[in-house]
Amino acid sequence: MLRPGLEFNQARVSVGEYSDWLLLLRVDPKLFTFRARYAPDSPLRVREWHAAASPEAVINGGFFDADNQATGLVIADGDANGYSYRGFGGMFFVRDDAPDLVWLAVEEYRPDPRISQAVQGYPMLVSQGQAIDSFPEDGKRNRRSFVGIDRAGRVILGVTTAPVWTLTELAGFLAGRSGLEVDRAMNLDGGASSGLWVNGVPEVMLVDSFVPVPAVITIDAR
Hints:
This protein is mainly beta. It has one domain (6-221). The chain is built from two helices and 16 strands. It has helices at 46-53, 167-176; strands at residues 6-15, 18-27, 32-38, 57-60, 74-76, 79-81, 90-95, 98-103, 115-121, 124-127, 130-131, 145-150, 155-160, 182-187, 196-198, 215-221. A hairpin with a 2-residue loop joins strand 5 (74-76) and strand 6 (79-81). It starts with 5 loop residues before the first strand and ends with a strand.
């Protein structure tokens, strides 16, 4: 417990024939707010985003192209950028000051002035507490980052530290891990983009992105 409503955990977990350190941050939305930040013209590494914005925590956002443009929709403080995925992926968003996460294959995005923040990613990993097995799986292993919501409505942010996870393994872990009680979860941009930086946690326990990223999710105390 870093402070009321903000819990950090570093756990050594098994991933098939491998093992890895998994970093998790669990956030009570009654005590903390979430923002999407987007700067395609001046991307930063996750640690640099944290230094520039001074939030309680920051995690990398969704996928982007060679020009640092988001491949999905990003809404930062009400300003919409890019285009929504259709028929696949998910969207983490804040509507009427409350965070939520939807599977876009089930609930298509429709413009809504009440949505102030949003980040899209793919694939959706968990829905209604069950691992999703309908997304294409190439079997590649990589570092991963994700955002989820548990059955109590708390937001869970996480990164892995080693390139040993398939998407199927990550989905199965999040759905089956005792104590997490993940209701739904979405994959963020993994690999070199994965990073999680948190106030009050020793730097040796945190993960910075290897490359600058144009979009992040930040967490601030209310």
